[in-house]
Amino acid sequence: MIIYKKPEDLHNLLEKKKKEKGEIGFVPTMGALHAGHLSLVDAAKKQNKIVVCSIFVNPTQFNDPEDFKKYPVTLEKDILMFEGAGCDVLFIPSVEDIYPNGINDLAHYDLGFLETVLEGKFRPGHFQGVCMVMGRLLEIIFPNNLYIGQKDYQQCMVIKKLVELMGLKNKIKVNICPTLREEDGLAMSSRNTRLLPQDRIKAATISKALRYIKENLKAGETNKIKNEAKEMLLQKGFLIDYVEIANADTLGLIENWDGKKKVVALAAAFLNDVRLIDNMVINT
């Protein structure tokens, strides 16, 4: 595995590799790796000649500065994990490399409805930050395939929209990979390492609440089942941002389900100061 820190050096290498007709797969991360990240590397290895991964904790996507400060950093361990997973090239840029003109007065992306609902509503500015960093990374790496995890469902939709806005829809394929879970059902997340031991046990309730919706949702009004799922979380001490059922393709919130449309159940809630998100697609 080769490690690059400077965008121009990495870009030059990849331009050379593209001339050799090798497809490039890209896995962006903020580090603090877990098995979910490594599953993305594995998916990329199966479909590409070269797998590029990145580690960059992006300051512009944290609407809470304290959350940014507390984000877990485990760089040495991450490097070893990427090497063991078969990553070919690891990119570890600085903030100055990603934002050479600083983090003020940055471009604005027209994300429409996606920025007004769920994560967009509760984390204002978050998705603009995601687009800023992903836009820059895609410019530097210009992969054939991009690999991201379904756990961040709305973010996946935002990144697909970004690729469209950049005019790259026919040049970069966005591959959304399944959420990996712990034995008790908790979605794997770098934030899980911040949970207190007693909260880690409670944390699996968020996936249980979503599974309850998935297994019991019937055609008709959705408020009752959402409230039942919320009560499961409240009983374990969660502070809830949202528990919602939405159209799986548009994220339009569903108050009355026709029993046919593909929908997704989504939740975001705090245990103490750790915010957890999860989702489950409900196939019809």
Summarize the structure.
The protein is of the alpha/beta class and 284 residues long. It has helices at residues 7-19, 35-47, 65-70, 75-85, 95-98, 119-122, 126-141, 153-165, 197-203, 205-216, 223-234, and strands spanning 2-4, 24-29, 50-55, 89-91, 145-149, 173-177, 220-221, 239-247, 256-257, 263-271, 274-282.
Mean pLDDT: 96
User: How many H/I helices?
Assistant: 11
Spell the H/E element sequence.
EHEHEHHEHHHEHEHHEHEEEE
CATH topology of the largest domain: Rossmann fold
Notes on the structure:
By secondary structure, the protein is α/β, with parallel strands linked by helices. It folds into two domains: 2-177, HUPs (Rossmann fold), CATH 3.40.50; 190-278, Pantoate--beta-alanine Ligase, Chain: A,domain 2. It contains eleven helices and eleven strands. The strands form three sheets. A six-stranded parallel beta sheet has the order 1-4-3-2-5-6, sandwiched between helices. Strands 8-10-11 form a three-stranded antiparallel beta sheet, with helices on one face. It has a two-stranded antiparallel sheet with strand order 7-9. A hairpin with a 2-residue loop joins strand 10 (263-271) and strand 11.
